[in-house]
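Listing S7. Sequence submitted for prediction.
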Amino acid sequence: MIGLRLKDEAVDTLIADWSRDYDPTTTTLILAHLRRDVRMLNEMARSELVERGIIVEGFAFRTEDGHRNFAIGDQIVFLKNEGSLGVKNGMLGKVVEAAQNRIVAEIGEREHRRQVTVEQRFYNNLDHGYATTIHKSQGATVDRVKVLASLSLDRHLTYVAMTRHREDLRVYYGTRSFAFAGSLIKILSRKNAKETTLDYEKATFYRLALRFAEARGLHIVNVARTVARDRLEWTIRQKQKLADLADRLLAIGAKLGFAASAKPTHSQSSNETSPMVAGIATFPRTVEQAVADKIEADPGLKKQWEDVSTRFNRVYRPRGSGRSYRRDDCGARQTRLIRRHTRASSEADPHR
């Protein structure tokens, strides 16, 4: 365990020790948890070898993650399984031939050692392999390992990192940052579930999620959109859960009798809003026809009507005149009398 006050000092010391111990006949590997640290360590390690003249600047190769220079002697790592080449994700190799967008790498050990030709147009998922992530190193075994510890480690990652070596292992860390977080032992021995940006979906602010994403080299804008979308979907799910809960409460209330007690209130409200007298929507017959039908249907009423008609004729017959009265005038008066009688009947019985 090699502790320096600052992380940058720990990185510089790690690279200096790695450069001093570098031996092409042995296998070495630098491990870190964060991808940005891996990228930095790869650039620093290769610059040391170029400066010492062990390798040359090399030829450009357009990888999935951007342009890289490869030369004879470079250590590389394959980042994707490819059956036609016989390579797997995390497999290490050493460049034996290099050209523009084309390399020949040696992979495997001892009797399993062989060469593969990699052309950029067919396969470009590779990078410098002096340093790699702890996740990528699972399954690999090398002679010497140097580990850059960070606050994102837990006991599972620590176990993986510390079991990749055959001969020598060294861990470098910044004492100040680990002191603020508790201690080196506390961080490396903690039990921590695998983190994703979704672990921060319920946070009041997305600052922690964005900090997590930035530390792993993720695109912050895309992460922010993902977190916001996940929060919206979470809200929609809660709304549906509340609706389901309301239905269940209504069902329970019905079983307990609460729903039955609410029905009279609804009925009373309906009675309060209903009109006192039902309105007439259509008039299929005239008043005269309705009265005539009613008279014909009721014998008692028919007799009363005949008495009224007789008296009507007597009252309106002209006195002292042999002339008969005009039937038109009589008919008009009779119609008015019928309407008056009908109106009086309706007022006496409003539901008729």
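Caption to Listing S7: primary sequence and predicted structure tokens for the chain studied. Residues 200-205, 260-270, 320-327 have pLDDT under 50 and may be disordered. The chain has eleven helices and twelve strands.
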